[in-house]
């Protein structure tokens, strides 16, 4: 499903990842743990092919991605649902429009957007917020919109980068329940977090990073 083999990543003189190797099976729940700067976000950005590794091999859904041509990168990203701590929503678009963008990118016919958006907003508990703008929502609601946007394209893999970072624990718990629900439906879920309560909430495999190296793996 997903494999890193001897991956190194440097930004100038700074080493972000060093000899990172692991494989993740379909349907796994995996936590990437470690302090800030350990390399968690770099791994997730490499999976999206935001940049190429300095060396090593990355395989996603049976495809080597480190040397993907630019025109093939959108196809990779359509198979991955990404959830970020800062939401990455367009604040001049409504909730429905933000989610519909993901459908447009995947090539879903426009006459099908309404039903998909309605269904996914109901799933995340925001059935009446479709015409609101992000500035009208709370932090927890913004993260639910981000989850809805990730789920609406029915991705094989979901990753969440510190999805509870800005939230109180009650709200964070409800957000994690939505993410766990995606895993319950057979999706591979990768959560980057340093929050100890998240790690305790549901048992999953833990890959611990420190200074760009994998120092522990509970597989």
From TrEMBL:
Homodimer. Forms a membrane-associated complex with FtsX. Keywords: ATP-binding, Cell cycle, Cell division, Cell membrane, Membrane, Nucleotide-binding. The keyword Cytoplasm does not apply. PROSITE patterns: ABC_TRANSPORTER_1 (PS00211), ABC_TRANSPORTER_2 (PS50893). This is Cell division ATP-binding protein FtsE. The keyword Amino-acid biosynthesis does not apply. Belongs to the ABC transporter superfamily. InterPro entries: AAA+_ATPase, ABC_transporter-like_ATP-bd, ABC_transporter-like_CS, ABC_transpr_LolD-like, Cell_div_FtsE, P-loop_NTPase. Its main location: membrane. Residues 2-219 form the ABC transporter domain. SMART domains: AAA. It comes from Candidatus Woesebacteria bacterium GW2011_GWB1_43_14.
